[in-house]
Amino acid sequence: MYKQFENEMCMITLLVPTMNRSDFLIRFLRYYEEIGFKGCICIGDGSSPEHVDRTKRVIETLRDNLNIVYMEFPDLKVTENVERLFDLVSTPYAAFLGDDDFLIPSSIKKCMKFLEEHPDYAAAHGKGISISLDSGGEFGRVIQCGYYPQPVMEAGSASQRLDDYMSHYSVILFSVHRIESWRMMIRDIHLLNDRSFGGELLPCCTSVILGKSKELDCLYLVRQDHAQRYLLPLGLDWVASPEWYPSYLVFRDGLAKSLALQDNISLEEAQKVVKQAFCAYLVAYLSSCSRRSRRSPGRWLQVAWKIPGARQLWQFLHTMRLKKQSVFSLPALLDPSSPYHADFMPVYKALTTPPIEFSDKTTGK
Predict the structure, then answer these.
(1) Is 100 in contact with 229 (CB distance < 8 Å)?
(2) How far is the C-alpha of 190 from the C-alpha of 203, rounded, in Å?
(3) How far is residue 217's CA from residue 201's CA, in Å, rounded to a whole number?
(4) Where are the domains of the chain?
(5) What percent of the chain has pLDDT over 70?
(6) Neighbouring residues of 174: CB distance < 8 A, sequence distance ≥ 6
(7) What are the pLDDT digits (tens) for 83-126?
């Protein structure tokens, strides 16, 4: 166990796969240099030569200030890139994020300390926000800012956590995990040709099986929504792909083995739990895709409105959602009285103030 936290940041590695987004990656590295980050940043780069050359030139200027492990993986799939990155980790904790995301170091420390003191928890994170810029690129004016949900799963059994998680799915990969948990989470992803199963669903669900997850009251994650994001296939494009069913079987069997071990149940019983949980996820996922493709509310909503108290309940939930969003609005975060203000401002500066090397491209001068 890691009892001494006087030099906490040396205990964390940030793992960052990237491809052909050198501007975002350089912004990412400049942010961590600016705030004096002392952990390790491990980058797996699958970019074309021009992006690689640009990134390497900048990294050389940062070597004295940042602990960077940079690897070129030009011919690897995303899941293979991730596996190679984790082979390089020597710290007891790790967090995974995109080159367009930001984690707050002070909150990373709190998450590591929480996991140290709570061995029944596999993951910890703080509050997350999502941001959009008017430029659609790496620098610009913030035009949208709001709460980004991350999972909190605290049921006692792995079976119940998995069932709860798949019924209310959100991504858990950005949380701080122990490196032992990460190795379990990515153990079988090389067997999956489907990116959704291998790059997200299997490691996320394995995390939930391994232990509880906690959200601390601190600003932890800032994600940028933009047109250059790496997107997974949606709806029927995903389910109808030739890789889907073979990958689902690997996903089901891998989770069942982990679940049987964690809850001390039979493999057959564990497979039933996985199947039931995944069915709930799939129904919600396809329903969400269907709703996004239509403008008018479905018949289920028209029926729901006839249930006594339904409109009042919806209004209450909507009001609570708006209150949570307002705490993470841009005016609220820019207010020095906000408990998240101090942690937000370095990210805000990184998003809105391009360094000299970007000025020609950004301003047109």
Answers:
(1) yes
(2) 12
(3) 26
(4) 105-295+321-353
(5) 84
(6) 95, 96, 97, 101, 103, 125, 128, 150, 221, 223
(7) 888 888 999 999 999 999 999 999 999 999 999 999 999 999 99
